[in-house]
Amino acid sequence: MIIANPRTVTNLGSRARMVWAGTLLAFRKRPGLGVRAPKTGTPAGESWYQVSMRATRARFWIEMFAIVGAIACALALLMATVGAAAAAAAAQETESGQPAQSSAAQPQTYEGMITDTHCGAKHSADKGRTAGDCTRVCVHGGERFSLVDGDKVYVLEGSPAALKRAAGQRVRIAGTLNGTTISVASVAAAAP
What we know:
Layout: H1 14-26, E1 29-30, E2 34-35, H2 48-96, E3 108-116, H3 131-140, E4 145-149, E5 152-157, H4 160-165, E6 170-178, E7 181-189
Parallel strand pairs: 5-7
Antiparallel strand pairs: 1-2, 3-4, 3-6, 4-5, 6-7
């Protein structure tokens, strides 16, 4: 490659011709303004380094917003889970009227009428059966024994033979309460 004079191009490769042509375009004259400064790669006059740094800064902030958003979502999910667990525990406590008891709770005594979960305290009189007969028929049909004490109804589990004998009668039951279910330990006639 031989350059005799910067104004005359002789024996230059294609890349050198492009650089020379770009330099000539960059130093164009405008009427009344004189010679302009050389152009760089962007319309704003920034170098490629400045453009890449601006893009890097923008990417940094986008990543930061994404990370903060993900952390906020994770904390919201954690708080919702803890809140749901606390609400379930409070519902169990208010349902039984007393704090949740452990499985090793002491047996308590409950007094009321033995009936079934279908009829409750009101047995159908039009069938011509006694309360005991109606309870036995309903339990044989798939219902469960229950103890009605005023406006409270407890489902009874265990001792099916003793419960069948006392169906429709007022009794005293010893057992442990879990929610609204009593695990029956013994059944005895209620004191008059």
